[in-house]
Amino acid sequence: MRLRAELLLALIGFLVGIVATYVFGLHSAPQAPAFNPAANPYAQGIYAEGIVESYQSNGKNINIYPNVSGTIVEIPVHEGQIVAKGTVLARLDDSVQKATTEQLRSQAEAAHAMLDELKAQPRKENFEVAKAQVVYATAQLKNTQDQLAKQEASYRFDPKSVSQNTLDDAINAEKVAAANLKVVQRQYDLTKAGAWIYDISNQEKTFDADEKAYLSARSLLAWYTLTAPAGGKVLAIQASLGSYVGSQGTYDSYTQGFDPVIVMGTADEYLNVRCYVDEILIHRLRPSSKTQAEMTIRGTNISVPLEFVRLQPFVSPKIELSDQRLERVDVRVLPVIFRFKQAESLPVYPGQLVDVYIAEK
Fold this sequence. Notes:
The protein is an alpha+beta fold. 39% of the residues lie in helices and 25% in strands.
């Protein structure tokens, strides 16, 4: 009985093993790839990784940084908008700078008013007062002279008729009146001459300094408004209302680095592709207007022919994995720029990575 049970279990195990071997031995057909990997369309071609950029006759996309630090209070444009040169892209809080500018403007206006006052001298009213003082002093001198003459005549007629003290007082009064007339006459001449040339020169320099300070503050005030340096398309706005930005741009909490506040590109019908050719392949590259190249959009089977634009003759480190300030690699690359015409059916945007093959000579 026991032997039969063991034989039965052994038979069941054998059958289970056969079934498991068959099941696990089956191989399902692999799924077809969602898209074909980029293939070299040329008999001899150089592979390069490319990045799509807006079309520029030189340089890359237009990165906009503020010249001053502050909090963004207005962003009147949106991403994808076509803007003209001088269009306001963002405004920073300029309340303190605006008050400083107004203060310096008032100081410059006050200095200019003081300069006009000096140049307008003598003032008519002051001149008339000085003239009247001369007339009055002249009359006083004439009166004291007459009084002295009378006293002297009486003294000569009868010395006892006038005391020596009274005669001395008359003589002194005549001298005081004469001296007073000289002072008043000189004051009249000074008033008539107007402002001293050195006072005018000093005030001119004061006004010039105040005006330049005001113009400098006004120019600095304009820096709180970011405007489009050229006509084009707003590609990216990397800050929001209330963000604090500086001359280094805006802080990105994800990458822990600084980005430009706004990225702009041209509204041209073309897009650029900046390709990075490895330094060990540079000797096989023969860039010219007849150079053929083809771009493959990643994730699709779409291939686009490229037109050679220019070569950037400066080999630089290949930076791909992390921030350039932190990463140092031995591989160096040569940038080569191509272009292609945009189309609504073409899913390509600036900043997108693509695969590029460049035909050798």
